[in-house]
Amino acid sequence: MAKYFMAIAGLSGFLAVALGAFGAHGLKNKLEPDMLAVYQTAVQYHFYHTFLLLAVAALLLKYPQQGSLVASAGFTLAGLLLFSGSLYVLSLSGIRWLGAITPLGGVCFLVGWALLAWFGVKVAGH
């Protein structure tokens, strides 16, 4: 699983840079300031959680059988798709109901971090 999550983290980082640059240069004069701020929030959380995914993938290299790490990576990936994904689409399309999906992604992020903490206490702490 480590190699898959490492590859996904690399792709996610690539996309975060590309989407961030697109937002900064291509959308600067195209989106209203409030929607540009929403887009920037998507990029910001995209970057933060790409680093979490990368860290978990690296830990999986040493602890490949740890279900809490696999679950952490899965929830983090789901959070990226639901949280950042919904904000990207909301900011570009103006479809406001997508904002209702965003908190589900936030919950996935929280679960991903909590599972990493659980791993830290349960496994790495011994």
Give the averaged pLDDT, no decimals.
95
Overall helicity: over 70%
Largest sheet: none
Instruction: Characterize the overall form.
Output: elongated
Q: In the residues, how many domains can be counted? A: 1
| Number of helices, where a helix is a run of at least 4 consecutive DSSP H or I residues | 4
Based on CA atoms alone, the radius of gyration comes out at 16 Å
Structural class call reads mainly alpha
Count of individual beta strands: 0
Which percent range describes the beta-strand content? Answer: under 5%
Please explain how this structure is put together.
This protein has one domain (2-120). The chain has helices at 2-26, 33-62, 67-93, 102-124. Helices cover 83% and strands 0% of the residues. The protein is mostly helical and 126 residues long. It has 4 helices and no strands. Helix 2 runs antiparallel to helix 3 (67-93).
Quick rundown:
Helices cover 83% and strands 0% of the residues. With 126 residues, the protein is mainly α.
